[in-house]
Amino acid sequence: RIDGRGALPSGGIETRPSRPDGGAMTTFPVHTIDSAPDGAADALKGIESRVGFVPNLAAAMAGSPVLVTAFGDMQPTLGRTTLTGLEREVVALTLSHANTAEYPLAAHGRFAVMHGGSAELVDAVCAGSTLPDARLDALATFTRVLIQTRGHVPAPAMDSFLAAGYTAEQVLEVVAQLGYTTMANLAANIALPPVDEAFRRTS
């Protein structure tokens, strides 16, 4: 059951403890461009060119050339949406919070700040609280409803989202961002890569 803000149930999800040594499981090694399997190195190079380094999550995804290539290919595609960079990060943070995905929460929190979001806004998204910006709050609320209802969004929730100034096209763009972030969330929760220093909060 969801409340009026699309709040997700707080129970029922048990997270695995972090690795004591912060290292990668042997099953899912954190690759370098040189150690990546055939077909994965080019994807890592593309991600490096956009981010400035190879994030540990992408490096762990490289164990599957198909996964890391799909992940990398979606990055420039999502950049062509009509959603702003900050709006995409709000969607990503909302899903990462729902999936208790530690690494993506850290990464998307940093990207949100890079796109102009405040630390207070990031904290509010991660807590499922009301956002200080009404339009972004409508986006986070709609995203929670979309996740919880598995796409069977009630008409009042859809109407509220559109009334906030979003379009039908942007509804589908939220779906695209959720698809991308779902890949990241599931891979992160399976492989448990250590959070990169660049994504860690300094205060």
Termini gap: 35 Å
Q: Main beta sheet, described?
A: none
Structural category is mainly alpha
Total count of strands: 0
Report the principal-axis shape.
globular
Mean pLDDT: 89
Question: What fraction, in percent, of the residue positions are helical?
Answer: 55-70%
pLDDT under 50 segments (min length 5)? 7-24
Radius of gyration in whole Å, from Cα?
A: 17 Å
Query: In DSSP terms, counting alpha (H) and pi (I) runs of 4 or more, how many helices?
Result: 9
- What is the percentage of strand-forming residues? under 5%
H/E element string?
Answer: HHHHHHHHH
Describe the 3D structure:
There is one protein chain. The chain has helices spanning 41-51, 56-61, 65-78, 85-98, 102-114, 119-127, 134-148, 155-163, 168-191. It is an all-alpha fold and 203 residues long. The N and C termini lie far apart (35 Å).
